[in-house]
Design a protein that fits this description.
The complex is a heterotrimer of chains A (about 400), B (about 450) and C (about 525).
Chain A: H1 3-14, E1 18-20, E2 34-36, H2 41-54, E3 58-61, E4 78-81, E5 88-92, E6 97-101, H3 106-114, E7 118-119, H4 131-137, H5 144-147, H6 150-153, E8 154-160, E9 166-170, H7 182-186, E10 195-202, E11 204-205, E12 209-216, H8 220-231, E13 239-244, E14 248-255, H9 257-273, E15 280-282, E16 296-301, H10 307-316, E17 320-324, E18 329-334, H11 340-353, E19 357-362, H12 365-368, H13 380-390
Parallel strand pairs in A: 2-4, 3-4
Antiparallel strand pairs in A: 1-2, 5-6, 6-10, 7-11, 8-9, 8-10, 12-14, 12-15, 13-14, 13-17, 16-18, 16-19, 17-18
Helix pairs in contact in A: 1-2, 8-9, 8-10
Chain B: H1 3-10, H2 30-34, H3 47-52, H4 59-70, H5 77-85, H6 91-95, H7 102-116, H8 121-133, H9 137-141, H10 146-154, H11 157-162, H12 164-178, E1 191-192, E2 200-204, H13 209-213, H14 215-227, E3 230-233, H15 243-247, H16 251-266, E4 272-275, H17 278-284, H18 287-290, H19 298-307, E5 308-310, H20 311-318, E6 329-333, H21 337-340, H22 347-354, E7 359-363, H23 377-380, H24 382-398, E8 403-406, H25 409-421, E9 427-430, H26 431-440, H27 445-448
Parallel strand pairs in B: 2-3, 2-4, 4-5, 6-7, 6-8, 8-9
Antiparallel strand pairs in B: 1-3
Chain C: E1 8-9, H1 12-15, H2 30-42, E2 48-49, H3 52-56, E3 72-75, H4 79-92, E4 96-99, E5 116-119, E6 126-130, E7 135-138, H5 144-152, E8 156-157, H6 170-176, H7 183-186, E9 193-199, E10 205-209, H8 220-224, E11 233-240, E12 242-243, E13 247-255, H9 258-270, E14 277-282, H10 283-293, E15 303-311, H11 313-329, E16 334-338, H12 341-352, H13 354-357, E17 364-367, E18 370-371, H14 377-391, E19 395-400, E20 405-412, H15 419-436, H16 455-458, H17 461-474, H18 504-508
Parallel strand pairs in C: 1-17, 3-5, 4-5
Antiparallel strand pairs in C: 2-3, 6-7, 7-11, 8-12, 9-10, 9-11, 13-15, 13-16, 14-15, 14-19, 17-20, 18-20, 19-20
Helix pairs in contact in C: 2-4, 9-11, 9-14, 14-15
The chains are: A alpha+beta (about 400), B alpha/beta (about 450), C alpha+beta (about 525).
Chain lengths: ~400, ~450, ~525
């Protein structure tokens, strides 16, 4: 009797929604055996216990928007589809806290929260992105400049370990230093340490007004000057984005109507003083806002003062760049048929020298094989040790993460 | 008992129990030690902690050491070293939110140390030489003027052997260069009448270092007090107030000085005893505590102590009557520890200076940190004192002020030497000298030395 | 009063293993002797403290109830000193404990009698302030407030501001994930540290995070921050600097009762305002602060709120109007605005000195630290008042009302028979109230030595076991600040490598491998 033969019934005994995988279930080209859709943390735990008993490799999936990020798994036996766990479990508006299941799309959570005049200050950068997917990749959008990312806003986590044990950390209060913050460890771990099933978030009030100031700019030096003028000022931008080489610097201001009006005026003065010829002011976000560039997707980070240089170097390498110039976290795109490896080498050197990093987030397999996806990762041995503790038999998304973790 | 001793006792060995650090006569108070909640708020105010970043050289750590002593641990050399290293600046008393009376703790501890700890011969000789010199104005006089001082004292074997002269010479020399007004010590009249309506009769302490090195400060004090309506009495037969002795645990000596000073002022018929040297004032305000066990003096000491005022306090209490003439100058005011921390006098000197038209007052960064002078500290511990002086000088110079104003002779000498070491110059004056110049209508140059400094 | 009075105690002793009041055995094992000899060979003489009197000044941190004299102390001057010491400790399997300014309130830096105390307070260089990158690189011994001082000239500051910011060190902040009054709006240390040079418990030196954000790999930095020194020692910290706000308004509002002040707090948050801080003090805490610093709070107030608004001027002014209205609507009878930094400092002085100030109205006291969802404030405060009334133990309340972080101060006189025990019982019950309300046993003081026994009340065995898997990854020999946070250590065992050996199904006979 093969493991495959045993797996179906064993999994079905842990969860009533298990099916054999089809083509569309492949994880970055790796076909799984089964897909299970647990309805609860307990069912997830049961499935992972079964997977442990059968030594099945497991990949958790939300909306499946970022399964091709990073490196492909070495093997997949079971896809844990968390789409049934999509509930907003609690919204304690008075405490500015919400609890939701991992399969809940970010947009849906936002709708619920908006009814009470609140939001999770995180952008869903890809349509349909779930909380779990966002947590696993620590994905972020323009508003991260002011509000941070999942690692900053998640205050409690329920995770199912590789051995099926359910563990919680943090809690329902924002201020809490009891025990290790496992949430931060899970954030951005690409599903290699455990399966996050529920999370608690701190919320912010929804702003009543917002304005976007956009400047067309041709040269990177001026773009950097515009960014610096706003970043080192008192106008408290929610986001400072750049679209390059399209040549746009855009500033998002959010707050009260009067406040945004006054800061819009101040920001316009700053931008003009830093070399902007015209400043377009609109309530609508520009169409490119928060969207990753096309093609092979890179994530580039650097110190703030190096953003101008990065734009210049990226343009030279034929890489389009969008992202948070105000946070120094940008996304690059270039055609798959370009000299990807060369561009990655040059830009990575630049980012490393500027205190940052370059990760090839998504690329076709043939391109990916020509590049170092993650680049140098300090403290890799400690990371391996952490993996060794949480998933000693390498069953959770094996190979999807840095250093082959 | 140490753990070693306990272990030895338990195993039945015969052992010599170490002598406990403190004896029954005025040990540091266990209750006061117990007031410390170990919060650490004193640490950044402590000059030695600022320099070395070590717990045992912080107020909290020294209180821990006292606690060990009270629990019966012996007075080891290391313990004494940390007590000795305290500058006694009392910045920690200001910083402490729990109101721990570190000043009383360190004073009682130091008295125990002096009585019970066997110092090295060299240390003993140095301390002996200091206390044979500083509290005695006449002996100090011999040091005045670098050449004359060097020659006359140079022959003194005691001073040479201890290196005392080398230790104090740099400060003295810097002082001579930076304070060109240092004139011949004039004898002050025993009584100076108030100008205009008499508002008070005050006695004035002339001090030791002040009298010999800064006679102009005493003269200015008399003039300002008189101008503000005070009859000023300067008892001729006054000696040292005992501050240096108190701060260094030399209790019998301190008691002797204190009694004599009370004697000098008791029959002078004064309402207040005015002091222009911060260290002296703080000790004189504590005479009641110092003499509390002396049946002949306890009550008299209370009466005396309540009359003691820093000159800036009395001037603010009386309120100005004399006209202030403009002094267009930028001045940085340096808080002397024994004025700011020990007496809580911070606002008054600033108020007086701010009352001078044209004078622009600038604040010095880290005002609470001692300049390293600390009585005789810079003589006993020249290295840390120099480091602290350099830090203070840098902060003083950073203000860009033309004139440094402070209310303690030790601070003036210390900062002067440090400023000079930094290759800079700044004019120096006591608060009353600035007031005096303003009231007398003298030009700024009378304070800055007529262009000899910045 | 005996010499032990005035020590700050907390609740741990009620349920926890009783900690030694005095130093235990000197721990002079062959391993400790070997460590002493080896560090003395490799480090400068002044760096290694072996003198008993000196060592005893390190026997406690800001929680003076627990005292243990370390076997030796290393006053590190460099990352090399730290790495050398830790490596030797690892080789000899001797525990080490890192200590910053020693102001912690949970005994997190309590030494081990059988171990080395590594003191970081001498590593206090601010290596770099880069306003253009909004970063500063500082050594762990640098005082929190000094970072702000260094950045101020550039228009920046370091946002986390624990009440002890004038003395607590950045290294200690990293260990405790310190917050402060302003974390309601600005977050905690973990939100303001982007990188660290870090000595792992095997003595290796690694970089965690970096100058830029989102370093690839696991967020080990975020895991280390708040781990109370149990995962290793940070030897340099890259912090994020925050733009000094354009406008700051600090108001002091006096209310008849804590209920009124609590209602005002809820109304302010409910109005969509995120103040930089909302602090509350009750009548007893006000009395203490008045005694200590003469802060001149409104007379007869049953509670005061300190509300600080910061940000762009227009918005701050709008919010200020709202806050004033909401306070008055909820019963504020006094409303005072600080017009400059001096007045602001005076308002804050009462609040920031409150802990130590309680020493003025009570010989002994316990500082408690618990968190509740803010909406539970009135209920929990009433429950605390009932506890206090029924036991005749006075409780002063000082807390960060905005985020529900309570600091009840339980007052007692240890010279009175039974008072200490009664106070500890009340203190423990307050934590139970916090847990029942869905909160936490510590919002900022940490678990340390003091509250490890409470961890099982908040977390399951599985939760704690999972946290300790991280511990095992970093410190398999359990030598980095052992005995803190976790009531029982996890045996780490052998770290398994790649899957090998017989397949579990094959082994159990269910399946054969073809």
């Amino acid at each position: 009797m093969s493991v495959e033969t045993v797996a179906g019934p064993a999994l079905a005994s842990a969860c009533d929604d298990v099916r054999e995988a089809v083509d569309g279930d492949s994880v970055d080209g790796v076909p799984p055996g089964h897909v299970a859709r647990p309805a609860s943390t307990d069912e997830t735990a049961g499935l992972l216990r079964t997977a442990a008993e059968l030594d099945l490799a497991v990949v958790a999936r939300g909306a499946g928007t970022k399964l091709t990020w990073g490196t492909p798994p070495e093997r997949v036996d079971l896809v844990l589809d968390l789409s049934r766990m999509d509930a907003v479990l609690d919204h304690a508006a008075g405490d500015l806290v919400a609890v939701a299941q991992a399969g809940c799309p970010i947009d849906r959570l936002q709708e619920t929260l908006a009814a009470a005049g609140q939001r999770l200050a995180i952008d869903g950068t890809l349509p349909g992105t779930t909380l779990g997917g966002g947590i696993a990749t620590n994905s972020s959008g323009p508003r991260r400049m002011l509000n941070g990312t999942f690692r900053d806003l998640m205050i409690g986590t329920t995770v199912v370990r590789a051995d099926g044990v359910i563990a919680k950390s943090g809690g329902r209060v924002v201020k809490n230093v009891a025990g290790y913050d496992l949430g931060k460890l899970m954030t951005g771990s690409f599903g290699t340490l455990g399966v996050v099933t529920e999370a608690v978030f701190r919320l912010h009030p929804l702003p009543t007004a917002s304005q976007v100031l956009a400047v067309d700019v041709r040269d990177a030096t001026t773009a950097a000057a515009l960014v610096a003028a706003v970043v080192h000022s008192d106008v408290v931008p929610t986001a400072v984005e750049v679209d390059w080489p399209a040549g746009v610097v855009a500033v998002l201001l959010e707050g009260t109507e009067q406040g945004v009006d006054s800061r819009t005026a101040a920001t316009r003065t700053l931008l003009t003083g830093a070399g902007a010829s015209t400043v377009d002011i609109a309530e609508q976000l520009p169409p490119w806002w928060g969207h990753h560039p096309e093609g092979v997707l890179l994530k580039l980070t650097c110190s703030l003062s190096a953003v101008g240089g990065l734009l210049q170097e990226a343009a030279r390498q034929g890489v389009a760049v969008r992202g948070s110039a105000g946070a120094g976290v940008l996304y690059g795109g270039l055609p798959a048929d370009a000299e990807v490896a060369a561009a990655v080498t040059v830009l990575r050197a630049f980012c490393l020298a500027a205190g940052g990093s370059l990760v090839v987030l998504a690329a076709p397999a043939d391109v990916r094989s020509t590049v170092d996806v993650w680049g140098p990762v300090p403290a890799l041995e400690l990371m391996r040790a952490v993996k060794g503790q949480f998933d000693p038999h390498r069953r959770l998304s094996p190979g999807r993460f840095v250093g082959g973790i | 008992m140490t753990t070693d001793a306990l272990a030895a006792a338990a195993s039945g060995q015969s052992i010599d129990l170490p002598t406990p650090a403190f004896d029954e006569y005025r040990p540091p108070s266990a209750a006061l030690v117990g007031d410390c909640v170990h919060c650490g708020f004193c640490l950044p105010s402590c000059p030695t902690y600022v320099l070395w970043g070590e717990e045992m050289d912080s107020p909290r750590g020294r209180i821990d050491l006292m606690k060990q002593g009270l629990e019966g641990d012996p007075l080891t050399d290391s313990m004494v070293g940390h007590f000795d290293a305290c500058l006694g600046c009392m910045a920690c008393v200001t910083a402490c939110p729990s109101g721990v009376q570190y000043d009383r703790l360190i004073e009682t501890t130091r008295a125990q140390v002096e009585r019970r700890h066997q110092r090295t011969r060299r240390d003993k000789a140095l301390r002996g030489a200091i206390f044979a010199l500083f509290p005695y104005p006449r002996r100090l006089r011999a040091l005045r003027g670098p050449l004359r001082g060097w020659q006359r004292i140079g022959g003194d074997r005691l001073l040479r052997r201890t290196g005392l002269l080398e230790r104090i010479a740099p400060s003295l020399a810097a002082m001579e260069r930076l304070a060109p007004r240092l004139g011949k010590a004039e004898r002050l009249p025993e009584r100076t009448a108030a100008i205009g309506t008499r508002r008070a009769t005050v006695g004035m302490l002339t001090g030791c270092v002040q009298r010999e090195f800064f006679p102009a400060v005493n003269a200015a004090t008399v003039r300002v007090l008189a101008a503000e309506g005070c009859d000023v009495v300067v008892p001729a037969k006054q000696g040292c107030c005992g501050a240096l002795s108190v701060h260094n645990g030399r209790e019998p000596e301190a008691l002797r000085f204190a009694r004599a000073l009370i004697d000098s002022f008791e029959n002078a018929g004064v309402e207040w005893v005015v002091v222009n040297a911060a260290g002296c004032g703080s000790t004189m305000k504590e005479y009641a505590e110092l003499l509390r066990d002396d049946p002949a003096y306890a009550v008299r000491a209370v009466a005396f102590a309540t009359k003691v005022r820093d000159v800036s306090e009395i001037l603010v209490e009386l309120g100005p009557v004399a006209t202030r003439h403009p002094l267009p100058i930028t001045a940085a005011y340096h808080d002397a520890c024994h004025l700011a921390h020990a007496q809580g006098v911070r606002a008054q000197p600033r108020a007086l200076l701010n009352g001078i038209p044209g004078l622009q007052l600038r604040e010095i960064a880290d005002p609470a940190i001692c300049c390293g002078s600390a009585g005789i500290y810079n003589v006993l511990f020249p290295e840390p004192a120099r480091e602290l002086g350099d830090r203070k000088a840098a902060n003083v110079l950073a203000t860009g002020a033309e004139l440094l104003v402070t209310a303690n002779p030790g601070c003036l000498m210390q900062v002067a030497a440090s400023v000079e070491r930094a290759g800079e110059t700044i004019a120096l004056a006591h608060t009353v000298e600035v007031l005096d110049a303003s009231i007398q209508g003298r030009p700024v140059a009378s304070l800055t030395g007529g262009g000899t400094s910045s | 009063m005996s010499s032990t009075h005035g020590t700050t105690k907390t609740a741990g002793a009620v349920v926890g293993p009783s900690a030694p009041e005095r130093s235990g055995p000197t721990g002079d094992s062959p391993q400790v002797r070997a460590v002493r000899r080896r560090v003395q060979e490799l480090l400068p003489a002044k760096t290694v403290i072996t003198d008993h009197a000196r060592l005893r000044t390190y026997e406690c941190d800001g929680l003076a109830h627990y005292r243990v004299t370390p076997a030796l102390a290393v006053l590190a001057d460099s990352v090399d000193d730290v790495a050398t010491t830790v490596r030797i400790c690892a080789e000899e399997r001797v525990p080490f404990v890192a200590r910053g300014s020693g102001t912690g309130l949970s005994g997190g830096a309590l030494p081990r009698a059988d171990g080395v105390l590594i003191v970081m307070s001498r590593m206090r260089a601010i290596r770099e302030v880069s306003a253009e990158d909004q970063r500063a690189v500082v050594e762990p011994g640098v005082i929190n407030l000094d970072v702000t001082k260094a950045a101020a000239a550039h228009g920046y500051y370091y946002a986390p501001d624990p009440s002890s910011q004038q003395i607590c060190s950045i290294g200690g902040n990293v260990a405790e994930n310190s917050g402060g009054a302003h974390c309601l709006k600005y977050g905690f240390t973990s939100n303001h540290v982007t990188g660290a040079e870090f000595v792992a418990p095997d003595g290796s030196v690694v970089e965690l995070g970096g100058r830029a954000l989102d370093a690839p790999g696991y967020d080990l930095l975020g895991t280390v921050i708040g781990s109370e020194g149990t995962l290793g020692i940070a030897t340099a910290v890259t912090v994020r600097l925050t733009r000094t706000p354009e406008h700051v308004v600090t108001v002091l509002a006096g209310f008849p009762s804590t209920d009124d002040a609590g209602a005002a707090t809820s109304a302010i948050i409910g109005a969509g305002i995120v103040p930089a801080a909302i602090e509350m003090m009750d009548a007893l805490a006000i009395e203490a602060a008045e005694a200590a610093v003469h802060c001149n709070y409104p007379e007869g107030a049953g509670a005061v709120l300190v509300v600080e608004l910061d940000g762009p001027e227009v918005e701050v002014r709008q919010e200020f109007d709202q806050v004033e209205r909401l306070c008055r609507d909820n019963g504020a009878f006094a409303f005072r605005v600080a017009n400059d930094d001096v007045e602001r400092a005076l308002i804050w002085r009462g609040r920031k000195s409150a802990f130590a100030a309680v020493g003025r109205i009570s010989p002994d006291y316990i500082v408690q630290d618990g968190v509740i969802p803010r909406t539970s404030l009135p209920k929990v405060l009433r429950a605390i008042a009932e506890l206090s009334a029924s036991s005749a133990v006075r409780v002063a309340n000082v807390f960060h009302a905005g985020d529900g972080n309570l600091h009840p101060l339980v007052l007692f006189d240890d010279s009175e028979e039974g008072q200490g025990e009664a106070a500890e019982e009340i203190s423990g019950k307050i934590l139970d109230l916090c847990i029942e309300a869905g909160g936490s046993i510590t919002g900022e003081h940490g678990v340390g030595m003091d509250k490890s026994a409470y961890m099982p009340r908040m977390f399951s065995d599985a939760d704690l076991d999972t946290m300790q898997m991280v511990r095992c990854a970093f410190d398999p020999n359990n030598i980095s600040n052992p005995g803190k946070i976790f009531p029982t250590p996890r045996l780490c065992g052998e770290v398994p490598g790649r899957h090998k050996g017989e397949h579990p199904l094959a082994k159990s006979g269910i399946a054969e491998i073809f």
